[in-house]
Amino acid sequence: MSANLPPALRAALERLAGRFSGRDLAAASHRLTADYRAGRGSRLPAPVDLAAYAIARMPATYAACAAALTEAAARVFLAPRTLLDVGCGPGTASWAAAEIFQDLVRATLVDAHAGMTALGRDLAAEGPALLAEADWQAGRLEGVAPATADLVVASYTLNELKPAAVADAACGLYAATRGVLVLIEPGTPAGFAVIAAARTALMTGGARIAAPCPGEGACPIVAPDWCHFSARLPRLRAHKAAKSADAPFEDERYAYLVAARPHLRIVAAPARILRPPHADKAATTFTLCTGAGLTQHVVASRDRDAHRLTRRLGWGDAFPSEQPEPP
Ligand SMILES: C[S@@+](CC[C@H](N)C(=O)[O-])C[C@H]1O[C@@H](n2cnc3c(N)ncnc32)[C@H](O)[C@@H]1O
After folding, report:
1. Which CATH architecture has domain 7-260?
2. Is the pLDDT of residue 323 over 60?
3. Where are the domains of the chain?
4. If you measure from the C-alpha of residue 88 to the centroid of ligand 1, how many angstroms do you get, rounded to a whole number?
5. Please, where are the H alpha helices in 84-234?
6. Does residue 61 line the site of ligand 1, with CB under 6 A?
7. CB 91 less than 6 A from any atom of ligand 1
8. Residue 324 pLDDT exceeds 70
9. φ and ψ at residue 276, rounded to 5 degrees
10. For residues 269 and 272, what is the distance between their CA atoms, to the nearest angstrom?
């Protein structure tokens, strides 16, 4: 799955950028970044703030959502037909879900901020039918009804709750799914703390964990370490201008969790690569989470078979590759 925005979303964001002055968008984007870094959540009072969120952050949150949803599709045997996107913002996760889950026919998107759902509806007007005809609702995630959709997703949302509210909120979202719940959060220690609290609460509630964890035991990661991954995304013209940035790409760090109802078949990764592999002439060293804990796995360059099987693997991938490499 590509981290590139779908062309219809890219065009909608470029059109949105055209409605504001570059200077106003850049100023709003800097306020947003300061809020994000300070862990203040998204306070988006004016249309320019909402537009800056969509232009500056949506490409990155899209890349993270696409990566997490791709892994969900690979790990859980389910072809969802209905989608609930909670704390949907401008609809980021739903755009990614529409690309990945081709059987989706109905989407409901809920956000506490009516300006966000209005913006999302506007961006989706010329998007895929799933988004253009979606039911956009102003509402709170705490109020979602049980068994609402086959796939429930909340991206970059639970970190906006008080930490003590995360476990109940995650269980409420799990109750809302008939199949799979996917949570995506910033790849920071605070974002991982949200994922870890949700994981514990969901497992206690009977959920199966399909990704990224290779096992369903206690999480072996201990602070100050945290489990997170990285998605590389190309920057749009408007995106670069809003962020006053020149580099043609950026790396979005994210943490995620895929939880499934127990009746579904899941195939968890045998192990998960937790950092960029370290390679030198003699060997490549992988830091792995296995069902039994964390370990360093060394593949010697002279071990041709093992080297061929693992040489393309990177941070976040399952280990070892389940698909044989082409010769
Ligand atoms: C950082 S934005 C993420 C938006 C989108 N999911 C994305 O990935 O780009 C967080 C969103 O969660 C919404 N939100 C926060 N708390 C909420 C709650 N209790 N119920 C519903 N939405 C909430 C905010 O209004 C905001 O739009």
Report:
1. 3-Layer(aba) Sandwich (3.40)
2. no
3. 7-260, 271-319
4. 6
5. 92-100, 114-124, 129-132, 166-176, 189-204
6. yes
7. no
8. no
9. -60, 130
10. 6
Gap between the Cα atoms of 159 and 324, Å rounded = 38
- When computed from its CA atoms, the radius of gyration of the chain, rounded to whole angstroms, is 20
Helix axes 7-17, 58-75, angle to 10 degrees: 160
- Distance CA(183)–CA(153), nearest Å, equals 6
Q: Which two tokens stand for residue 121?
A: 């509806």
85 C-alpha to center of ligand 1: Å? 10
Kindly give the residue spans of alpha helices, DSSP state H, lying in the chain. 7-17, 22-37, 47-52, 58-75, 92-100, 114-124, 129-132, 166-176, 189-204, 237-243, 304-310
pTM for the full model?
0.94
Q: What is the dihedral of CA 122, 125, 129, 134, to 10 degrees?
A: 30
Closest ligand 1 atom to 141 CA = 20
Best mutation site among 160, 184, 254, 256 for ligand 1 pocket (most ligand atoms within 8 Å of CB) = 160
Query: Does the beta carbon of 156 lie inside 6 Å of ligand 1?
Result: yes
| pLDDT at 210 (0 to 100) | 97
Cβ(92) – ligand 1 distance below 6 Å: yes
DSSP-assigned letters across all residues of 106-126:
EEEEEES-HHHHHHHHHHHTT
Q: What's the 99 CA to ligand 1 centre distance in angstroms?
A: 21
